[in-house]
Amino acid sequence: MKSIKETVAKVLFTAAAGVSILAVALICVFLFASGVPAIAEIGPLEFLTGTVWKPGSDIYGILPMILGSIYATLGALVIGVPIGLFCAVYLSRFASPRVKRLLTPGVELLAGIPSVIYGFFGLVVLVPLIRQVFHVQGMSLLAASIILGVMILPTIITVARNSLDAVPESYYEGALALGADHERSVFRVLVPAAGSGIMAGVVLGVGRAIGETMAVVMIAGNQVQIPNSLLDGVRTLTTNIVMEMGYAADLHRDALIATAVVLFVFVLVINLVFAALNARSKK
Amino acid sequence: MEQKTNSAAASKNAAAEAPKKPHRKVSSAILGALVRIAAVATAATLVIIVGYILVMGIPAFNPDLFALEYNSQNVSMLPSLVNTLLAVALTLVIAVPLGVMAAVFLVEYTTRGNKFVKVVRITAETLAGIPSIVYGLFGMLFFVTFLGWGLSLLSGCLTLAIMVLPTIMRTTEEALRAVPDSYREGSFGLGAGRLRTVLSVVLPPAMPGILGGIILSIGRIVGESAALIFTAGTVAAIPGGIFDSVRTMSVHMYVLSCEGLHIDATYATAVVLLIIVVAINALASFAAKRLTKV
Which residues form the ABC transmembrane type-1 domain (chain B) (predicted)? Predict the structure, then answer.
């Protein structure tokens, strides 16, 4: 009797663990089954390097969107990485316990704010501001980069801070004993020691920025073009999907799913890099 | 180059190298200032975003926003608020048992170097990194079209359940690993089987950690929009069943700001969303405090 119960439980637990395998398999099968034939029909080269996206005349080139995603992510990194890294250093080694108690939940709240609120804030504050300052339309690569930069801040801060906190205290004390002052000990000894952990945080931020959809679609302008300046409108891989999926049919629909396949491959590569960095920082 | 001589000098004898000192202080002062500026910038960003939404949103509240039925006159958020609660409940009902059982398997039922465990871990990590729009597309292809459930609460919640599964698995796993082995040994020593040990000895002290993961997941469900638009749809009414299309708060806010007609109502919706998120965060840190006590 007892052994039957045990066996049933074990089977149930094993099956539950198998759900994540099943989920990844289903996601791959369903995305690739529609996406890959579409890429084949359009032609891989035309699809990936074509600069014209005109579903009306069955022309599908996603190079502007690939570049759009990359530019927006780079822009986000330019804003998010320095602020995030310095803020993590502050929280780990400079802040008084009282400031820590205030700022840590603040960073967590920043991570919890839904992307629609970020997008909406960008739409009603940032876009008009850019419009006034530069006398342009306002919805732009710049707006998207700034909002994405803010959105990846908490990710970078949390991961970088955790790896800074994990550096043995003796490193810091050793640097002090050699005569380095506080700032020098932190930046020349602790930050390099936490290097791969900090990089892991940045990579995680890249993943978040490249996958973000709703905040970007509200503020990026979404024109299909390779932007010439920060003030041009831009369309990313994610926003291409969310804008047109509602009404797409046939090859157009499959081309959008193929866009998701490209995005999925990007994310898989980012995940691999993240896993490798994590493994290194654990050593 | 300069810095190298500096540190060499510092290691010899800092006091004797007095002339070098002012230079080092300048670079340190700059770094110290940068660090503080970054912290202030982070705090300021949060205060500006939250403050702006509150200042613009709170005056926009009126009873119409909480009318039982949504129409384009009252722009009521009540149906989407109810839908959000329904979505949270249904998603958790699906994801929590699965996630907790999977974590129990990973911690209590496996031996080192098991291939199956490795694959489970890799796929869970992959799931955690997939962007929500890709989940949305998958949900649309699989639940909505292939299984024929249409744009519905069920399709949306199953999509969300896959999305939060890795979070629940990871937090539960951490909580289970934090339970000392002596508990298990004591239980086995008294003659309890593995299942009994898990249910009555290992899981109870791990509860606060599991709760923390559940709260994190609630935050993610409440804030999600991209994965829901093509799976749960945008119907702003309280559903009659799990096969009806629903619009959650975040989707409601997205639709409103795209329409651009009801800017006041959008601010008010943002305020309610923010309040929910703040409450969830407070709960999470409360659960985390309980966890550290155990």
Answer: 81-284
Query: Pick from B31, B116, B166: which is nearest to A183 by CB?
Result: B31
Print the domain residue range for B130.
64-293
> pLDDT grade, residue B23 (50/70/90)?
low
Same domain, B109 and B13: no
Average pLDDT over residues B217-242: 91
| DSSP run (H or E) holding B246 | none
**Residues B114 and B233 grouped into a single domain:** yes
In terms of C-beta density within 10 A (0-12 exposed, 13-18 middle, 19 or more buried), how is residue A76 classed? buried
Query: Within this chain, do residues A211 and A74 fall inside the same structural domain, yes or no?
Result: yes
**Structure tokens that stand for A253 in this block:** 């629909």
Provide the residue type at A173 as one letter: E
Number of domains in chain A: 2
pLDDT of B266-294, one tens digit each?
999 999 999 999 999 888 888 777 765 54
SS3 A234: strand
Contact A103, B42 (CB under 8 A): yes
Q: Residue B71: what pLDDT?
A: 80
Do the domain assignments include residue A58? no
* Nearest Cα residue in chain A from B169: A17
Chain B hits for A116, CB-CB cut-off 8 Å, are 223, 225, 250, 253-254, 257, 273
Express each pLDDT in A14-48 by its tens digit. 999 999 999 999 999 999 999 999 999 999 999 99
Residue A226 sits in a domain whose CATH number is 1.10.3720.10
Where in the sequence is the domain holding A37, given as residue range(s)? 2-48
Task: Give the max Cα distance, chain A.
Answer: 78
Q: CA Rg, chain B, in Å?
A: 26
Contact A183 B273 (CB under 8 A): no
A21 and A129 in a common domain: no
End-to-end CA distance of chain B: 51
Give A46 to chain B, closest Cα distance, Å. 23
**What sign for the dihedral angle of Cα B185, B190, B194, B200?**
negative
Question: What confidence score (pLDDT) does residue B285 get?
Answer: 80
The minimal CB distance from A183 to the residues B3, B28, B104 is found for B28
Nearest CA distance, A127 vs chain B (angstrom):
14
Contact list, B126 vs chain A (CB under 8 Å)? 24, 268, 271
Q: Which residue blocks in A122-228 are alpha helix, DSSP H?
A: 127-134, 141-165, 169-177, 182-185, 191-193, 195-211, 214-219
Q: What are phi and psi of A53, to 5 degrees?
A: -120, 100
Tens digits of residue pLDDT in A168-185: 999 999 999 998 899 999
Contacts with B11 from chain A: Cβ below 8 Å: 178-179
The DSSP output letter for A53 is E
Q: Which residues pair with A151 in a beta bridge?
A: none
